[in-house]
Amino acid sequence: MLISLSIKNFALIEQLEMNFSDQLSIITGETGAGKSILLGALGLVLGKRADLTSLKDKEQKCVIEAHFQINKYNLQAFFEDNDLDYEDTTIIRREILPSGKSRAFVNDSPVNLTELQDLSDFLLDIHSQHQTQELSNEEYQIRILDAVAGHQDNLDAYELQLSHYKSAKSELKKLLAEKESLAKEQDYNSFLLEELLSAHLKPGEQSELESVFEKLNNVEFIKENLDKSLAISNEEQMGIIQNLKEVKASLQKIANISPDFNGLFERVSSVLIEFDDISNELQQQAEKLVNDPEKLELVNQKLQVIYSLQKKHQVDSVEELLEIQNDLDGKLVLAGDLESHIQRLEGQISENTGKLDAIAAEITQNRNKAVPVLIGKITEILSQLGMPNARFQFEIKPLENYTPTGKDEIQLLFSANKGTDFGLLKKVASGGEMSRIMLAVKAVLANYSKLPTIIFDEIDTGVSGEIAHKMGDIMKQMSGQMQVFAITHLPQIAAKGHQHYKVFKSIQGETTVSELKLLSQNERVVEIAEMLSGKDISDSALNHAKALLN
Q1: pLDDT at 538 over 90
Q2: What is the superkingdom listed in this entry's lineage (predicted)?
Q3: pLDDT at residue 332 is higher than 70
Q4: Among 323, 421, 435, CA closest to 386
Q5: CATH number of residue 478's parent domain
């Protein structure tokens, strides 16, 4: 319940602080006195958007703070889920800065507007005049019926299954699109992969093949130069090896004379050993050298295949071609995995559908059971409110598709008088009838809903006299189960309150301000008398006011 409200620098309010009881509180005041300002301030606390026009003094920040007693409403889980500190007396504060920025806090923890709006759904129902038209809304009608049916567990289970179902359907749609895309590419990818596989590529083979090709393609030239090198190296009289042997023999004779000569001798010996090895290698290369036109052609063909593949795939090495080969292979494997995944998802969706249909059928069954209970309670209250012949019908039709609340389409039909046909509520009910029906609905819901506070903003539009008395009685009965506020222009309703507040304007210096005052018993008499007869209060009006209060 709302236990206190503090407003600073908002619209026509400079500063206001007020405490409230847990019963029926009445708020009255002349048109334009500031009742809508109070509702606007509460709206900001509950997460509505704000702008600089909300500030009375554009140089100062606006602060609105509301204290709620919430220990009876099992909201600990909500606070935990949103990482907020839970307090039995929870404080919600909204600040609007002169810069236009807005901040919100729950128990001094910063929150965004979405979190604030979600919390407000558990705390307060502000019923303004235009919201009476919600009765014509199918979604609202379903909420009324579900409250009476009392199957929130089924609705939660349905919502969870629907979430799984939608998630699986979304993923399936994505996979089917991917499959279609892959199918278009699959034949071409298969061709490219087969082309690469048939080339039997190996890492490093390109350079090896190019080396072999160069040798085979230049056999005569290579042989000519190898033979010349061997001849120079091994000629008996003037060959390099023979000359090196003679140099070595000469240095050997003087090696013992000086370390310098010995060093030269050792170096020449090493050169002779190395060159002798080179000569042997030249001999082996010359012997291995064979003119093989067939092998040359095979090597050339393989190289041309590699060059062609590199050009097609715009790469420069066999290693890059092998990477492309692996990638294509992976895509083809993915197509197979994709089909398997699609089949699993289709099975999951089929299972979800079965569960959803079962829960939806139970929800429909519960709604059908709740219909006569709800109609009975509403018509009983409407009979008290001067509509003894009011009749209702709920038409519940099955749907093929899934909605957020089940597989039902609901229409609320209404007849106000005997002998008249049923019609859609929004088309056949007058404004006064809609107000009374809405009050009846709220009164019924008070027995099923855990909402702590409701504010009726002139729900009495279009009624007067004895009906107003009855509306006041119903609100008073509701206040036995929840905190009720009624903003009214009717003295019959105003007299029913446990507390009575008056909103009024006053002139302070050069500015107009709105104020809210808790009326004493004598002040209530005067206020209600004024509501009865206007500013010129007669004795009869005062007596009538006292009678209403008693």
Answers
A1: no
A2: Bacteria
A3: no
A4: 435
A5: 3.40.50.300
